[in-house]
Specification:
The chain is α+β, with helices and mostly antiparallel strands. 55% of the residues lie in helices and 7% in strands. It has a four-stranded mixed sheet with strand order 1-2-3-6. A two-stranded antiparallel ribbon has the order 4-5. It starts with a helix and ends with a helix.
Length: 321
C-alpha cells in the first residue's frame, strides 16, 4: 500500500476532528466520545491486527506516518497505543475493549493519555495484563493541560505474553514518531510565522539568525523522522537498541525544536489562544515518556561497553541491523 493511500484519508480525518479547539476541550476534561467514535468507525485502530482476525495486517513501519500525523495534530488521545494494544490482544486471542487503551511499561512514570483511557495494557516484567484503568487509580500530574496520569496498584484482568523487549521498546518508538510529527508541524509553523511577521519593514525570516535557527529545526525534523521510522522498521517486537536510538534522537531534538519555535514566535507562542503551546507542551511530555534521552543513552552505552566487537560493527549489528 502506498503511503498516501493510507495517510491521506487519515490526515483528512484528523483535520476534521482533531482541530485545536477539540484538543483544548480534551485537555479541559471534555468528552472523548465524539472524536473517538469517528476514529473507531474509520477502521484505523485495527491497522496492525492481522487480516485473519479482521484487521488490515499492516506492519508498525507502515503506520509510522499515521503516528506522526497524530503528533502533528497534538492529539492527546492514545490512538497509537490502542493500535498496538489491539494487535497484541488479537494475536493472543483476547477480545479488545471498545475504548482507548494506554501502554504502560512502568508504573513509576506518568503515562501519556491515561486520563482519557478506559483500559491499560500493563507490562509487569513477566506478562502483560489488560486492566481497567480505574483499577490503577489514575491521578493527574498537575501539569497544565496534561492528560497524563500517575498509576499505581495491581493490574487486574486477562494476561498475555510480553513482546520481545517488553512494552517499553515499542512504546518508546511510538513516542518517537509522535515527536517526529510534532517537530515537523512546529517547523512549518515557525517558517510561516517568520515569513509573515514584519519588523522594521521586512519579514523577520530575512534575519540571518532566524534563518539559521529554522535550518537547524529542519535538520532536527528530518533526523526525528528517520530515527522514528527506523525504530518502527522491525515491527511491534522492537529491538531495544533500535528503540534507544529512536528515542535518544527524538528526545534531544524535542527540547531543541520547542525552544527554537518559541524563540521565533516570541511572546505570542506561549499565549493560551495561540496553537504553538499545544505542540510544545506535548513535545516535552513525549520526551520524558518511556525514559528521556539520558535513560536510553545509558542503556545503549552500557550495551556497547559490554561488547567486545569493534564499534562500527556493533552499531551496524545492534542499532541498524
Amino acid at each position: 500500500m502506498q503511503d498516501m493511500d493510507l495517510l491521506g484519508p487519515f490526515v483528512r480525518l484528523l483535520d476534521d476532528v482533531a482541530v485545536p479547539a477539540a484538543v483544548r476541550a480534551l485537555e479541559a476534561g471534555g468528552s472523548i466520545r465524539p472524536i473517538w467514535q469517528v476514529i473507531v468507525d474509520s477502521g484505523y485502530l485495527d491497522a496492525l491486527v492481522g487480516e485473519d482476525r479482521g484487521g488490515a495486517g499492516l506492519a508498525l513501519g507502515e503506520i509510522a506516518p499515521l503516528v506522526e500525523a497524530l503528533g502533528a495534530h497534538a492529539l492527546p488521545l492514545p490512538v497509537a497505543d490502542t493500535m498496538v494494544a489491539r494487535a497484541l490482544l488479537a494475536e493472543a486471542g483476547i477480545a479488545a475493549p471498545a475504548g482507548p487503551i494506554v501502554l504502560v511499561s512502568s508504573l513509576a512514570q506518568p503515562v501519556p493519555g491515561a486520563l482519557l483511557a478506559d483500559h491499560a495494557l500493563v507490562d509487569t516484567g513477566m506478562v502483560v495484563v489488560l486492566s481497567p484503568i480505574a483499577a490503577l487509580d489514575p491521578q493527574p500530574t498537575g501539569v497544565h493541560g496534561s492528560v497524563s496520569a500517575k498509576l499505581s496498584g495491581v493490574p487486574q484482568g486477562p494476561s498475555l505474553a510480553r513482546p520481545a523487549g517488553g512494552l517499553r521498546a515499542v512504546a518508546a518508538v511510538l513516542r518517537a514518531a509522535l515527536i517526529a510529527g510534532a517537530t515537523a508541524r512546529l517547523t512549518e509553523m515557525s517558517a510561516a510565522y517568520a515569513n509573515e511577521r514584519v519588523q522594521f519593514g521586512k519579514p523577520i525570516g530575512r534575519q540571518q539568525a532566524l534563518q539559521q535557527m529554522l535550518a537547524v529545526m529542519a535538520e532536527d525534523m528530518i533526523a526525528c523522522r528517520i530515527a522514528a521510522r527506523m525504530g518502527a522498521s522491525h515491527g511491534i517486537a522492537v529491538p531495544v537498541h533500535l528503540a534507544a536510538s529512536a528515542k535518544i534522537t527524538t528526545s534531544i531534538a524535542a527540547s531543541r525544536v520547542a525552544g527554537s519555535a518559541h524563540a521565533v514566535h516570541g511572546a505570542i507562542g506561549i499565549s493560551e489562544e495561540y496553537d504553538l503551546q499545544l505542540l510544545t507542551r506535548r513535545l516535552h511530555e513525549w520526551r520524558l515518556a518511556e525514559g528521556s534521552e539520558g535513560y536510553w543513552s545509558g542503556l545503549l552505552g552500557k550495551a556497547r561497553l559490554d561488547s567486545a566487537a569493534p564499534t562500527v560493527d556493533w552499531v551496524r549489528a545492534e542499532v541498524f541491523g
